[in-house]
Amino acid sequence: MQAVSLLQYSLIYNAFSFTLAAMTATTLFLWISRSQVSNNYKTALTISGLVTGIAAYHYWRIFNSWEAAYDVHDGIVTATGFAFNDAYRYVDWLLTVPLLLVELVLVMRLDPAETASKSLTLGLAAALMIVLGYPGEIAADNTTRAIWGTLSAIPFVYIVWQLFSGLGSAIERQPEGAKGLIKKARLLTFASWGFYPIVYMAPYAHISGPDAETTIQLGYTLADLIAKAVVGILIYNIAVRKSALETA
After folding, report:
1. How far apart are the C-alpha atoms of 3 and 69, rounded to whole Å?
2. Contacting residues for 162 by C-beta, under 8 A, at least 6 apart
3. For the residues of 114-167, what is the DSSP string, one character each?
4. Which of its termini does the chain have fewer beta carbons within 10 Å around, N or C?
């Protein structure tokens, strides 16, 4: 591990701490709030809370790994010799990214066959995207990073196409009172996911060493917060709105 500045260390340390707290709080809120929605949407909230719960666990591990990798004394940050384990992110994404798409499909309450089909195809594409991206993330050279990043982009483009084309007609069939929220959830999912490849390409901008580490850690953390906690709250609002409309 290369030594980072005190500012860089503190920014990443506090970002991990804040995200751990936010994911934990969102998990508790979503699971407690299952009583606020009809039975048709309880599973969507359960999965949404599972996403943030898994993320909370992994941010706890990431936070501890970051703390162990550096020693701070008299304002000086030095590497301890323990490697910072960033692989926790990919383990987390392999579990949570497919579930993020499943929760969006479930809250739309499509017919059972379409729900199963969309959940399976989108979930598999999301898992493939993460698996293909990992070798590039740990690559020591930008050429290898670019090759695996390009391969990972193929299922990503498919997911985007499904979000805006494959699910487009289904979204238009949603109740007027909830359609706008579902479109926002879809757009926010796309926007937050689009942030990951931008961060992934940070080394191509001639950013290296501690600067690259800071950019990558802060960028991925921000994207995680939006994709999981913020979208989770949107899923809750959609479930509440649709529950009210269906019982009115």
Report:
1. 9
2. 118, 121, 122, 125
3. HHHHHHHHHHHHHHHHHHHHHHHHT-SSHHHHHHHHHHHHHHHHHHHHIIIIIT
4. C
Handedness of CA 165, 188, 127, 208 (dihedral sign): positive
Q: What's the pTM value of the predicted model, to 2 decimals?
A: 0.91
Q: Tell me the pairing of strands 76-79 and 70-73.
A: antiparallel
Q: Pick from 41, 48, 56, 34: which is nearest to 189 by CA? A: 48
CA atoms of 79 and 214, how far apart (whole Å): 15
pLDDT in tens, 213-230: 898 899 999 999 999 999
Q: Express each pLDDT in 27-36 by its tens digit.
A: 999 999 999 9
CA distance 40 to 48: 14
Quick check: helix, strand or coil at residue 84?
coil
Neighbours of 159 (CB within 10 A): 22
Using alpha carbons, list the distances in angstroms from residue 77 to 67, 95, 207, 219.
11, 33, 20, 22
Helix (H), strand (E) counts: the chain: 9, 2
